[in-house]
Each structure stands twice: as C-alpha cells, then as structure tokens.
Amino acid sequence: MNKQKIIKVFISEDDPYTRIFLNDIFLVHSKDGSSYKTFMASTIDEARDYLAENKPDVALLDLSMPIHEGTRNETKAGLTLLKELRARADWKDVPIYICSGFDDQELKDEAKELGANGYLVKSQFLPKELIEMVNKAVKIN
Predict the structure, then answer these.
(1) CB neighbours (10 Å) of residue 81?
(2) Does residue 90 have a pLDDT over 50?
(3) Were both Cys, which of 28, 98, 103, 135 would link to 140 (CB 3.0–4.6 Å)?
(4) CATH of segment(s) 5-137
C-alpha cells in the first residue's frame, strides 16, 4: 500500500469565489502519491495569525487584500506579507507564490526581489499548471 504524501497549501485570498476555485483545484487533483490540504485566510491579519503558528509546504499569497476584515484592499498587502515571511528564518525554504489579477512587470520584479518563487496572474494559468508548480516546488512528481 502506498502512503500518500499530504501537501499543505496555504492560500490567502479575499475573494470567496476565487478561494473556492483554488481549493477545488487541489481537491480535484488529489490522487495516488499526493494529496493536498488547504488552509485559507481572507485578510492579511488572518494570514499572519495562522502563519505565526503553522508552516505550510507552499504558500499562495494574493497581492491585493484587506489588512483587516471590513477594510478596503491594499494593493501590495501580499508583498508586505511576503517580506515579513522571508525575514523569518523558518520561512527561508518555503516556496511562496504571489497570485494577482495584475499582469504588471514592475510588480512581478518586486515580488521576485522580495523572495517570491513565482508570480501567477489569476486569469492566465490552468489548474493543471498550478498543481504542477506546487508539486515541483515541493519536489513531487
């Protein structure tokens, strides 16, 4: 009997429909050899609280999110969180990807400079590509 590898994926995303979509991608693609357990946050505060106590195998951070529940989105909130996580010694090797609706080269460059492993434009990737990216990041074939 094969033991399944459970890949813990943290997703920060304020849009509830996008959260469901991303969660469903991982649910549908759980198969022999690997499965995915997702953890979600809809604000930067929720993300900080969760990540202070938990370390996923990979993190997907929305670029534009509210800091607190009920506040407006901050355009670079995900980059702020990325910078905070990369400053922690225990997060040096965790793959972190920025997910955004903005296809902007300056934002992509800034994310890379701050330590992102990649930058996904939400309207420009297929579910299979997301799974392949996560598997490669955690070295699962």
Answers:
(1) 25
(2) yes
(3) 135
(4) 3.40.50.2300
Helix (H) or strand (E) holding 109: helix 105-113
Listed residue (30, 29, 15) closest to 60, CA to CA: 15
Band the pLDDT of 32: cuts 50, 70, 90.
low
- Between CA 36 and CA 48 the distance in angstroms is 21
Contact (Cβ atoms closer than 8 angstroms) between residue 72 and residue 93? no
Angle at 96 between CA 103 and CA 90, to 5 degrees: 155
**Biggest CA pair distance of the chain:** 49
Q: Under a CB-based contact definition with an 8 Å cutoff, are residues 40 and 9 in contact? A: no
Task: Give 24-50 as a DSSP string.
Answer: HHHHHT-BTTEEEEEEEESSHHHHHHH
Domain boundary assignment for the chain: 5-137
Q: pTM for the full model?
A: 0.91
